[in-house]
Structures are given as C-alpha cells and as structure tokens.
Specification:
The chain is of the alpha/beta class. The chain contains 16 helices and eleven strands. It has a seven-stranded mixed beta sheet with strand order 1-7-6-5-4-2-3, with helices on both faces. The chain has a four-stranded antiparallel beta sheet with strand order 8-9-11-10. The structure holds pyridoxal-5'-phosphate (PLP). Pyridoxal-5'-phosphate binds next to α6.
Length: 499
C-alpha cells in the first residue's frame, strides 16, 4: 500500500460475506437445472394440446405494470414458480403446430439448450482467442458457403436482419461516399445519395436508410409486377434519371422472399443492373434465403452469390431461437474500414496472437459486447445438416402448396398471392360482396381466428386488399393442421358474414 506500511489487508469482514444465493453449490445448480428441464419438457409437449394463443390476462398485465422492482430477493424456486404460473402459460403461439403468423418459427429443443449452454459460458464475442469467436467464424463461413460468397468476404451475426441490413447499407454508404462518410458524415454533401427498393421491401430498409442519414426522400420505391417482384425496367430508368440529375445511387435492395407473399425479385437481373450502373446490391434474404437449399428455388436464388451483401435470419427459416440474424459482405476489408476505430497500422491480422486472436468482430459492426448467438446456430446446423434443413424447408413448402390447393379448390376462398411457404388469401363467401366489405369481413374473421385458439395467422394488405396470410416456417405442422385451418376459416367467415 502507498506509504510503505507493511500491514497486509485483512482476510475477513462483512463486506466479503455474500449470501449463499451468490454461491450455488453444484447440487443446487443440478436440482434447479432439473426443474427447468422438466418445465421445458412440459412446455414443448403440452403446447399442441393448448389454444394456439390466448391474450395475457388483464390482471396479470396490470400486476406486471405496477409491481415495483424487488427490494429483497426470494428463493430461486419461488422465482421459477412464478415463471410457471405467470409466464409459461402465455406464449405468442409460435411453437404450436397451427401457428403461421409473421415469420416466427417454433423453438427446437437443441436451440433452447444451446441458449442455456452459451449463457453458462457467457463470453462476450467482441473478439479474442477463445472458442466462441471461432464458433462464430465457423458458422459465418458455413453461411458464406451456403450462398457462394467468395474468400475475402465476411459474416457477422447480428440480433436480426434489420440490423444486418443496417450494417450492410452502412458499408454501401462508405463505398458510395468513397470513405468520406467517416470524416464528415453526410454533412456538406451536395450530391445526395439515393436508395432503390420495391413496394414490397421490408420496413427495416426504410428504418436503416433513415438512421444512415438518407431520409425517406432519398428512397426510390420501384413498382412490382403481377407477382410482386421489382420491375427491372422501372429500376433502370430510376437509376439513370438520378445519375443524370447528379445524384449518387448508393444501393439497390432486392428481396429474396418478401415478407408479404414470399416473392423473389429477379436477382440475376438485379445483379446485371447493379453492375451496369456501378451500384451496390444488397439482398434481403431474411426469410427466404435458406430456400437456396431447395432444388425448387436454387436457380432463382443462386445470383445471391454475386450480390455485394446479404441479410439472412437463422432465427426464421432455420428455426434457431431468437435473436439471430446474419450479414454477409463480399468485401470484408471494406466492411472493416466502415466500422473500425482501430487505425489500419495497429490492426492485428492474424491468429498468431494468443490472446487477441483473429480480427475482432467489433471492428466489423456496431456492437462491442456481443452475444454468443453463434452457438445456437452451430448446434442446430450440426444437428440437422444442410440436408436435414432442406427436408424441413421442403415440408413447409409442401404444406403451403396444400393450403394453396385448398384455396383454389374452394369457391368461398380467393388466392391473393403466394410464394415460398407463404399463402395470402381471403374469404369471399358465395354472393357478390364489395371490396370494402370484404376487407372488413376478413379483418373481423382474422380477429376471431386469432383469439379463438384454433389456429393463428397474421394479415397483410396486397394492392389495397386485406389478406389473411399464412407463413409456414413450422416443422411441427402436419397436413391435418392445414385442413383444420381451412375449416376454421370457412366456418368463421360464414359466421362473420351472417353477422
Ligand atoms: C423479418 C424480416 C426482416 C426484418 O428482420 P428482423 O430479423 O426481424 O430484424 C426484413 N426483411 C424480411 C423479408 C423479413 O422477413
């Protein structure tokens, strides 16, 4: 100690005495873990027997909203008891064989346990020479292999595709400004940047553009064809007009599986257009990307290999528990230049550093402390293999085809759009009904379906018409579940129409 005292610090003192809750014995960990495992077993096994969804009871919601932060703790068993009583019974429904809303898949047992194992290690995967960073590098490499990205490209796992797209478009902005964004941001630019999307592009692209300083007025919304795919002629004309006006086209966003109808933009055409105009091509494959594993869609999706960047969500059609998305960027060095605050002359390049290890993920994106989400993807991909995934995806596509066939064969139903494992349709009954009435009828029908507990869809609007939308990313569903959905929609439609 300063002052040269030879008194050493004492060994005792109340401040060092933490209670046993901070020092679980291995036996306590085991006993608690066994109870948790039993809860996982019961949850997964009982879900198909329960209503798909029931709203969280108002009394519970009120209690959640008003209960203050606990001042003193309770036993872990009490905490678990409360989970069992107030939380576990009220899922949003994904996990049920008749849940097909949004793009939410059921949990896999291995995913649930992988989450626990990752948390037990609890590393920050900012970087470093420990197992977790190498697991993420490996998973990133597997994804690049799936999509045919070349050596020199980079993958970063993200909390979802919104953040994957934000990351990719930041790199695109860095390219379009020739690096000046890192000196001046977008201040003082007299040549505004522009971004090209379709009328089916996900809202996360707009959010990203706004965060990157482009503003909605910089976004060109290109119309789509009768199958909801971006129109290349319109895109071409829009880029040419902007260039002629002295603007700087920053990026085109193509979608591989739109969230509305599963439409796949003409990707080969987009690659050609972007090359011709010298514009960055980002592909949003959040939902549909993994369909590249299916023969049926491979040719359509293969041009992704020529994109500058890709967003894809293992948390959607690879059934990995949330949150996990991924961004793939063809030019890994440019990605690092976009985010790194480490000057190039100080960057470590390699695996020869025993502690720092390979270049840190935190130099390639926004996050510093990073989740070990890679373990969930790694364990899932090891368990199923790409072939196993291909079978599961094909199962979902086959169920969508079954639903589509039902809709086409049933006069009271009308198909409004379909693609990959998505089917959009509406109830139209038997007599003539106006568009406004059909919208109102189907909105009411959907509300009853969602709260009735038999099946759960979401809705969307296609060319101003309200549609019931089924997105099947659910390995638990069976043909009988689809048949039950059709029956429920017909019955509810009839009831709603009858008033
Ligand atoms: C889900 C989705 C997104 C957004 O991804 P998140 O992982 O939810 O952030 C973007 N695009 C498409 C096509 C999607 O399906």
């Amino acid at each position: 100690m300063a002052g040269g005292s030879d008194e050493r610090p004492g060994t005792g003192g109340e401040r060092f005495e933490l209670g046993p809750e901070w020092r679980w014995t291995p036996e306590q960990v085991r006993a608690f873990g066994q109870r948790v495992t039993e809860l996982v077993v019961a949850h997964l096994a009982s879900q198909p027997e329960r209503p798909v969804f029931r709203p969280y009871p108002a009394a519970e919601a009120d209690r959640s909203a008003t209960e203050p932060a606990p001042r003193t703790g309770v036993s872990p068993d009490q905490v678990l008891g409360e989970f069992e009583e107030r939380i576990e019974p009220y899922p949003f429904g994904n996990g049920h064989p008749r849940f097909w809303a949004w793009v939410n898949s059921p949990p896999t047992p291995i995913g649930a346990f992988a989450a626990a194992l990752a948390a037990a290690m609890n590393p920050s995967v900012a970087g470093g020479n420990h197992a977790a960073t190498h697991v993420e590098r490996q998973v990133g490499g597997w994804l690049r292999e799936m999509f045919g990205f070349p050596p020199g490209s980079m993958t970063l796992l993200t909390p979802g595709s919104s953040l994957a797209t934000l990351t990719a478009l930041a790199v695109a902005r860095h390219a379009a400004t020739e690096g000046r964004d890192r000196a001046d941001g977008l201040q003082g630019r007299d040549a505004p940047l522009t971004l090209y999307v379709s009328d089916q592009t996900h809202s996360s692209v707009t959010k990203s553009a706004e965060l990157l300083g482009l503003g909605p007025s910089a976004i060109r919304t290109i119309p789509t064809d009768e199958r909801f795919r971006i129109r290349l002629d319109e895109l071409d004309a829009a880029i040419a007009a902007d260039r002629a006006a002295g603007l700087v086209p920053m990026a085109v966003v193509g979608t591989a599986g739109t969230v509305n109808t599963g439409a796949i933009d003409p990707l080969a055409g987009l690659v050609g257009a972007c090359r011709r105009h010298g514009v960055w091509l980002h592909v949003d494959g959040a939902y549909g990307g993994p369909a590249i594993l299916l023969d049926q869609f491979r040719a359509e999706l293969e041009p992704i290999a020529d994109a500058d960047s890709l967003a894809v969500d293992p948390q959607k059609w690879m059934y990995v528990p949330v949150e996990v998305g991924a961004v793939l960027v063809r030019d890994g060095a440019l990605m690092r230049d976009t985010f790194s605050l480490v000057p190039p002359y100080l960057r470590t390049g390699g695996a020869d550093d025993p502690v720092a290890g390979p270049p840190w993920f935190s130099e390639f994106g926004f996050q510093q402390t990073r989740d070990f989400r890679a373990l969930r993807v790694w364990m899932a991909m090891k368990e199923h293999g790409l072939d196993g995934y291909a079978r599961a995806l094909d199962h979902d596509v086959a169920l969508a085809e079954r639903l589509s066939a039902h809709v086409r064969a049933t006069p009271e139903l009308e198909l409004l759009g379909e693609g990959l494992s998505i089917v959009c349709f509406r109830y139209r009954g038997t007599g003539p009904v106006g568009e406004a009435d059909l919208d109102a009828l189907n909105r009411r029908l959907l509300g009853r379906l969602q709260t009735g507990g038999e099946a759960f869809l979401s809705g969307t609007v296609l060319r101003d018409r309200f549609a019931l939308r089924a997105c099947i990313v659910n390995f638990r569903s069976m043909p009988a579940d689809i048949d039950a959905l059709v029956e429920a929609v017909l019955r509810l439609g009839w009831e709603v129409a009858a008033g």
